[in-house]
């Protein structure tokens, strides 16, 4: 039996071959990637295999991780934007769903080598969803990679679906006496990429707060000067999605900023967007989309998105046509359907 | 001479056609996708797991 390597030894070896690792951890899934020069794949793959199948989780490293994690969390818990974000997620999805659950400092106390090894054994060794290889892998190399992953002995698994509680919009003000700024989050639970209005709503979101020239930026940053930055976003997860507006403003202009946000939402519901603005936003989205498919690694990210959302390649091939077909009337209809004040959550932390 | 006063006309593609990636299966049935679109001798191997946080 070969000797397992420490994290320092693995890091040094991968560095020697000019390779590196990257890991991601989403709310539904996680991934680990190896970037390697083709000529060194035979040398780097065994380290990748070892990390995935036989992690050591040394107690000394876990202790350091716990201390750093707790420290980072305690700093975050003093920040108004972090508090607004976690309260917003909890309000949208409830504290019993992973999308709404919040990490507490005492959660770090539970971590130890045995717990992590048990979780790894139970979940990761039984939960391989997919493998994506990108770059320049010929037939010989791809079969070598497949052969190595087969030898890892992992079992196939699919994304777990957890039942959601009904969405109950709420408005909360969390006072923080020492706050210099107030953090504002306004939004709602919405839908996933599968919904027929997803693309229309993503255009609407871009107009409102999805790019630097958006209406929220033009009004609340450029015209009123209430904030350095304001934006909005649309997120699609496995079980559900959500829409959010986020900003931090001076405490003295909190109320005025909130009023202006609702004013911009109301404009979307009552006025048709003029063709000049709509064309600008369509051009912006088209350019952003083209940038997002530039190169094999970017295409791999798109493939991952399709895979994790159970979508086919046609979703991407038809995307530009659907953006182009959006009309001002459709956007107003979507705004009226989904952006009623009564359906929106509002979380403010500060004073 | 390049015209540095007037920007080129914006050209919006009506559609794109991305290739369906080459696909394989591991012995356990897990799909493997190969996006072989690169020009440099470098490869990224990503394993995606259906589980995230320990506390999820």
Describe the structure concisely.
The complex is a heterodimer of chains A (351) and B (56). Helix content of chain A is 50%, strand content 17%. Chain A is α+β, with helices and mostly antiparallel strands and 351 residues long.
Structure description:
- The complex is a heterodimer of chains A (351) and B (56).
- Chain A is of the alpha+beta class.
- Chain A contains 15 helices and eight strands.
- In chain A, helix 8 crosses helix 15, helix 9 (215-223) runs antiparallel to helix 10 and helix 10 packs across helix 15.
- Chain A is globular, with a radius of gyration of 23 Å.
- The model of chain A has no long low-confidence stretch (mean pLDDT 94).
- Chain B has a domain at 20-56.
- Chain B has strands at residues 22-25, 31-35, 42-49.
- Chain B has a two-stranded antiparallel sheet.
Write the layout of secondary structure elements.
The complex is a heterodimer of chains A (351) and B (56).
Chain A (H helix, E strand, L loop, with lengths): L6 H10 L3 E6 L4 E8 L3 H13 L5 H18 L3 H14 L11 H5 L3 H12 L3 E8 L3 H13 L19 E5 L5 E9 L8 H13 L4 H9 L6 E7 L4 E10 L3 H17 L4 H18 L3 H13 L5 H4 L1 H7 L2 H11 L6 E6 L1
Parallel strand pairs in A: 4-8
Antiparallel strand pairs in A: 1-2, 5-7, 5-8, 6-7
Chain B lengths: L21 E4 L5 E5 L6 E8 L7
Antiparallel strand pairs in B: 1-2
């Amino acid at each position: 039996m070969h000797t397992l390597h420490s994290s320092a030894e693995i890091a040094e070896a991968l560095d020697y071959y000019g390779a590196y690792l990257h890991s991601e951890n989403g709310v539904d899934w996680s991934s680990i990637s190896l970037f390697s020069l083709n000529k060194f794949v035979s040398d780097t793959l065994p380290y990748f295999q070892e990390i995935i199948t036989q992690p050591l989780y040394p107690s000394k490293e876990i202790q350091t991780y716990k201390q750093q994690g707790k420290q980072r969390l305690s700093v975050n818990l003093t920040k108004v934007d972090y508090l607004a974000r976690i309260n917003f997620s909890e309000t949208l999805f409830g504290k019993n769903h992973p999308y709404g659950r919040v990490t507490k400092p005492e959660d770090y106390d539970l971590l130890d080598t045995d717990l992590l090894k048990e979780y790894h054994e139970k979940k990761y060794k039984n939960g391989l969803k997919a493998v994506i290889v990108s770059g320049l892998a010929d037939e010989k190399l791809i079969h070598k990679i497949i052969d190595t992953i087969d030898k890892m002995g992992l079992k196939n698994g699919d994304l777990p679906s957890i039942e959601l509680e009904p969405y109950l919009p709420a408005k909360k003000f969390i006072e923080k006496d020492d706050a210099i700024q107030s953090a504002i989050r306004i939004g709602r639970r919405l839908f996933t990429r599968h919904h027929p209005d997803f693309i229309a709503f993503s255009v609407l979101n871009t107009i409102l707060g999805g790019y630097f020239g958006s209406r929220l930026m033009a009004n609340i940053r450029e015209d009123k000067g209430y904030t350095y930055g304001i934006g909005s976003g649309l997120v699609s997860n496995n079980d559900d999605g959500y829409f959010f507006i986020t900003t931090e403003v001076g405490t003295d202009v909190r109320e005025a900023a909130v009023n202006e946000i609702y004013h911009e939402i109301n404009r979307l519901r009552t006025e048709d967007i003029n063709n000049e603005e709509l064309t600008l936003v369509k051009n912006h989205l088209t350019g952003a989309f083209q940038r997002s498919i530039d190169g094999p690694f970017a295409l791999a990210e798109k493939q991952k998105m399709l895979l994790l959302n159970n979508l086919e390649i046609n979703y991407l091939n038809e995307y530009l046509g659907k953006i182009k077909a959006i009309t001002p009337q459709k956007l107003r209809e979507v705004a009226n359907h989904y952006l009623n004040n009564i359906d929106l959550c509002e979380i403010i932390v500060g004073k | 001479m390049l015209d540095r006063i007037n920007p080129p006309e914006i050209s919006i593609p009506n559609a794109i056609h991305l290739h369906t990636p080459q696909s394989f299966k591991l012995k356990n049935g897990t799909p493997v996708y190969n996006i072989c679109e690169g020009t440099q001798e470098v490869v990224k191997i990503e394993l995606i797991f259906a589980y995230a946080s320990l506390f999820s």
